[in-house]
Each structure stands twice: as structure tokens, then as C-alpha cells.
Backbone:
């Protein structure tokens, strides 16, 4: 796996806007952003309505994912290019999701919607029509998904990477600062977790740093790349971006994203929590 | 698009007393600019980022302390230092 297999730039997307085997998909935290405008021929996936179970806290199941992709007109042999706002947080989350259900060819647009906008590239309001497909998903690949017991077992043993901002890690904030702070869970972080904010992976315009810079970022923070790693954040979307960096860009084999993340861990009874800045 | 609105977005429905709000607008020659605003903590580390609204406005729910706002718009980047307090909202007008 190399960078060009998983990441494309805006020029590549521009050149493939009318390619029938390439499906461009916008996934945003602000799910109404697509309504205003989007890259021409891009379809939308709503991370909240389309990707979550409507009742339990979990993902849509294999069958639900098949239905979703079939309805969106995405075929098993299509190349899916994901992009979104907020530096591709939710596009990375969707990328991880496509991999979880075994989609072969998925790529991220480097810099996402922000870079596209800052470059003043065209966005349109017109929604494309795509014929429905008969999509077949694979069973969930749980080698890339961590659950709460995996996290508790990893304390002091595996690499735990908390990708939230330093103020969320220390317990000063409970959510990213563009969201209201009222939350029920306890503040803090999982003991032994290293605080390596997701933002250190990216430049201001949202593009990823070079492989050399990224490797240095993790080794300088004492992440032992020979060990397995679990990344988490608040709800698993920012840590999906860090998962993308470690697993897809840097080719680390044993990296899991803990999608329960702090909203689950910080609400568990009896688990250890550490407060304060990183050591 | 209509012109820029002074100040941040409407605070209706927001529990101002319990939040530490930093908000405002980004303009160029008095007109709203579509772009992004990042909130950086005292150490200069990224804390959050929002796109500006159609009227150039933005809002953050922070914690008391000193912060840096960084406006990113096509062709320009502008930083502003702000001090935020709980229960009050800090208004910042950024011209780029």
C-alpha cells in the first residue's frame, strides 16, 4: 500500500469527474453542506442517518451497508473517492467504514472540501442521478475496529493514541470547541495514552504531511511502531483519520480505531481515567 | 448574497451562562468571506475549526483562557489573539 493507492489530489479528481467507474462521495459533519454545493457528480453519504443503526449505538449492519451503497449507485468494482469538510474527519470515518465492510478501491481526496474551496475550484448544487446497483458487502473486518475491552486491556501494553486536542486530553474540554460542552461523561483520557492530536497529521489546508514527517511525529512521541496501536477520540471520526495515517499511509499492520471512543470510555463504570496533560 | 452581519451568529437557544463563547465574523472590504476559522490553544495547537456561514460568521464553545483565531480564506491567513471568559461571549471581527 502506498500513498498514491489511498490518496488523490484535486487535479486527479477534476480529471475523473465524468469517469463512470469513479464515484465521488461527500461525507460531512455538517450534513447540510452538500445541499448548498458539492463537487460535480458527487453523491452524499450522511454519517449520522446512513451509517448508524437507528436504535442501538452501533453501525448499520452488513445488509444495511449493502442497501445504502446499492441505493447510492456504488458498485463493488467502483473506485470510491471520499471527501468532506472539517479536514476530512468524517470522510476518513467513512473510508474506515468502507474498509470495515471490505470495499476494494477507496481513496481520500487530500485536503477534502476545504482545500478544494481554498483553491477556488468549482462547486455545484445539482444532484447527480446514479442507477442503483446490487452491492455485496463483506463481513466486518474487526482487525481494524477496537472495542472497549480491547482498550482496557491495552492500558500499559499497547500503543494508545488519543487524537483529541490537548485540552480535551487533559480534561479541560469535553468536546471539540465548535460544539457545546455539556456532556455526561467524565473528562480525561485512558491511562498510558499518548496525546497526538489528529491535527498534527495535517497542514493548515487539510492536506496530509509527508510520510517522513508523519513517521517522525509518532516516533518522537514514543509510539513504538513495532507494537499494535489503538486510536481513539470522542466518537471515532478524528481517530479514523489517524487510523488512515498509520494504517493506510504508513502501512502499519496492526492499527485499530476505537469508535466508542471517549463518549463510551468516559461513561464506563470503574475503568481507570487519568487527568492532566500528557507525560 | 446579502452583506456581512456584525458580530457572531444568533445566540437564541444557547446556554450562554455555562459556556465560554468566542464568535464573530470574517470580512473583506466589509463583505462576508467564505472560508474557515481555526481555534488554536495557548500552545498554538489546533482545537477546532469551522467554516464561516453565508454571512461570514463563526462560533466556538471554548474554555476560559487565551486563544488564537486563525482565519483561512482563499489567498489569505489572518491570526487574532483573544481572551475568553465563561458566561460572557467574546466577539471578534476579522478583516482579511
Residues:
Amino acid at each position: 500500500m502506498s500513498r498514491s493507492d489511498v490518496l488523490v489530489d484535486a487535479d486527479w479528481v477534476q480529471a475523473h469527474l465524468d469517469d463512470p467507474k469513479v464515484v465521488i462521495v461527500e461525507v460531512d459533519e455538517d450534513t447540510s453542506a452538500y445541499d448548498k454545493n458539492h463537487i460535480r457528480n458527487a453523491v452524499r453519504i450522511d454519517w449520522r442517518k446512513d451509517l448508524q443503526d437507528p436504535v442501538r449505538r452501533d453501525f448499520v449492519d452488513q445488509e444495511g451497508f449493502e442497501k445504502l451503497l446499492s441505493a447510492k449507485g456504488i458498485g463493488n468494482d467502483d473506485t470510491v473517492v471520499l471527501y468532506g469538510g472539517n479536514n476530512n474527519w468524517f470522510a476518513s470515518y467513512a473510508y474506515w467504514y468502507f474498509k470495515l465492510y471490505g470495499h476494494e478501491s477507496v481513496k481520500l481526496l487530500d485536503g477534502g472540501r476545504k482545500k478544494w474551496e481554498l483553491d477556488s475550484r468549482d462547486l455545484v448544487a445539482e444532484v447527480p442521478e446514479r442507477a442503483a446497483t446490487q452491492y455485496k458487502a463483506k463481513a466486518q473486518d474487526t482487525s481494524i475496529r477496537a472495542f472497549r475491552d480491547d482498550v482496557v486491556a491495552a492500558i500499559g501494553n499497547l500503543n494508545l493514541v488519543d487524537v483529541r486536542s490537548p485540552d480535551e486530553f487533559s480534561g479541560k474540554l469535553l468536546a471539540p470547541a465548535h460544539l457545546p460542552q455539556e456532556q455526561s461523561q467524565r473528562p480525561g483520557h485512558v491511562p498510558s495514552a499518548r496525546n497526538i492530536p489528529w491535527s498534527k497529521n495535517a497542514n493548515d489546508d487539510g492536506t496530509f504531511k509527508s510520510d517522513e514527517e508523519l513517521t517522525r511525529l509518532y516516533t518522537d512521541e514514543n509510539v513504538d511502531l513495532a507494537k499494535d496501536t489503538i486510536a481513539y477520540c470522542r466518537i471515532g471520526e478524528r481517530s479514523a483519520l489517524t487510523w488512515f495515517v498509520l494504517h493506510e499511509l504508513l502501512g502499519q499492520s496492526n492499527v485499530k480505531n476505537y469508535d466508542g471512543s471517549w463518549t463510551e470510555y468516559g461513561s464506563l463504570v470503574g475503568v481507570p481515567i487519568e487527568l492532566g496533560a500528557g507525560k | 448574497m446579502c452583506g456581512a452581519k456584525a458580530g457572531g451568529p444568533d445566540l437564541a437557544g444557547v446556554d450562554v451562562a455555562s459556556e465560554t463563547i468566542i464568535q464573530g465574523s470574517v470580512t473583506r472590504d466589509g463583505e462576508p468571506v467564505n472560508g474557515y476559522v481555526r481555534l488554536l490553544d495557548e500552545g498554538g495547537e489546533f482545537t477546532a475549526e469551522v467554516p464561516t456561514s453565508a454571512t461570514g460568521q463563526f462560533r466556538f464553545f471554548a474554555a476560559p483562557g487565551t486563544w488564537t483565531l486563525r482565519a483561512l480564506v482563499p489567498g489569505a491567513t489572518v491570526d487574532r489573539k483573544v481572551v475568553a471568559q465563561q458566561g460572557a461571549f467574546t466577539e471578534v471581527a476579522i478583516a482579511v
User: Anything to note?
Assistant: The domain at 16-95 of chain B is CATH 2.60.40.10 (Immunoglobulin-like). The radius of gyration of chain B is 13 Å. The interface with chain A takes residues 14-15, 18-20, 34-36, 38-39, 41, 43, 45-51, 59-63, 70, 72-74, 77 of chain B (CB under 8 Å). Chain B has no helices and eight strands.
